[in-house]
Fold this sequence. Notes:
Distance between the termini: 49 Å
Mean pLDDT: 82
Number of strands: 7
Oligomer: single chain
Low-confidence stretches: 1-8, 77-81
Largest sheet: 7 strands, mixed
Number of helices: 6
Radius of gyration: 16 Å
Strand order of the largest sheet: 3-2-1-4-5-7-6
Amino acid sequence: MRMGAARASSPTRGWGVLEGWLAVKRARLARAHLPASVRDGRILDIGCAASGWFLQTVTAKEKEGVDQVCRPHDAVAPHDQSALRLQSLDIGTQPLPFAEGWFDAVVMLAVIEHVSRAQAVSIAREAHRVLKPGGRYILTTPVRGTEWLLHGLSRVGCISQEELKEHHVHFSPQELRASLQAGGFAEQDIRQGRFELGLNLWAVATKRA
Length: 209
């Protein structure tokens, strides 16, 4: 019962007492890095989960979310009544079904660790393609070296065991930057940092105008 409720309303498919707090922290960081053009433009959330939770916290004219767990009835009316659409997509193997230069921002929050390194580069390349010039690709992910802590937190019910089992790779700051560069972003257009006590990385890559 509790797990099912979490899947229906939370940003993750599994349950953990810290999941909601962590999602709020990620969302706050991502919103702080969104370009001003998003308010009257378009945003894409890659790995949005069934609820499209992050998109419901953002003001934008059009909001798109993709995730393999999405179903047509998962879309819900956002609070600001902007257009929101969620669709099923395997982000590790399928290209993004959007035109070149379509979005002002693309976000991928605590998702890139669920794909391989090669797939991370492919997704970065796709994000670069669908961004407008000046658009931003915003990511968060656990930093390499925190795996032992994450497993400990999952064992005591703090974070989702279900999703942690699907982690394939963790990035160092240098590795994350390299994957973004391989995806087409110029080194000088990538900003990075840490948050949540230094246990997670964030990166913002801007498509050159």
